[in-house]
Design a protein that fits this description.
With 176 residues, the protein is of the alpha+beta class. It is 45% helix and 16% strand. It is built from seven helices and five strands.
């Protein structure tokens, strides 16, 4: 593990079902928002990594300059806002710190997958095809950086393959 990452760089650690993200302070620590630590804070690289490999993603596209990112992180860490999976998770924190649109691509993908599984289970025929294609169109809203981080999850998800394998030929009569 490297002792230091450049100031303002987005770092991530892969856990079995998700990536945890934070921002490097440039001095061997990471600004993060973590459920395990009950919210926002500055932690050591070893605490952030939890003995896993750290991935350095560089700067988020359209991010503020590194100094501004660190200033934002310091201010947000002072805010006692607690971690919340849907409204204030590590991705929300990182996006806010970097001055880009606050979003959580992992939550979005999870919702897309859940919607796909529900449609697959409870819909049929052309209606099912239309719903699956509309769900797939949501993938286009992921920005380039998000897509590069998470493309392996998208392309291996059941939703992606269900959409590709769904019969969308409108001339064929429904069998259901």
């Amino acid at each position: 593990m490297t002792a230091e990452y450049p100031k303002g760089h987005l770092l991530s650690v892969q856990f079995p079902l998700y990536h945890h993200v934070g921002i490097s302070d440039g001095c061997g620590h990471v600004y993060e928002n973590s459920r395990a630590r009950s919210g926002r804070g500055l932690v050591s690289l070893s605490d952030f990594s939890d003995n896993k490999d750290i991935i350095d993603h560089g700067f988020l596209p359209d991010s503020l300059p590194a100094e501004d990112i660190i200033d934002n992180a310091k201010q947000l860490v002072e805010d006692p806002k607690r971690y919340h999976l849907l409204k204030n998770n590590c991705e929300h924190f990182v996006h806010e710190v970097c001055g880009v649109r606050v979003t959580s691509p992992q939550i979005r993908r999870a919702l897309i997958l859940i919607a796909t599984l529900l449609v697959d289970r409870f819909a049929s025929g052309r209606f099912k095809s239309a719903l699956l294609w509309s769900i797939a169109s949501q993938l286009s809203h992921l920005n380039e950086a998000t897509f590069s981080w998470w493309k392996h999850a998208i392309f291996t998800s059941a939703g992606f393959w269900l959409v590709l394998l769904t019969n969308t030929n409108q001339d064929v009569a429904d069998k259901d």
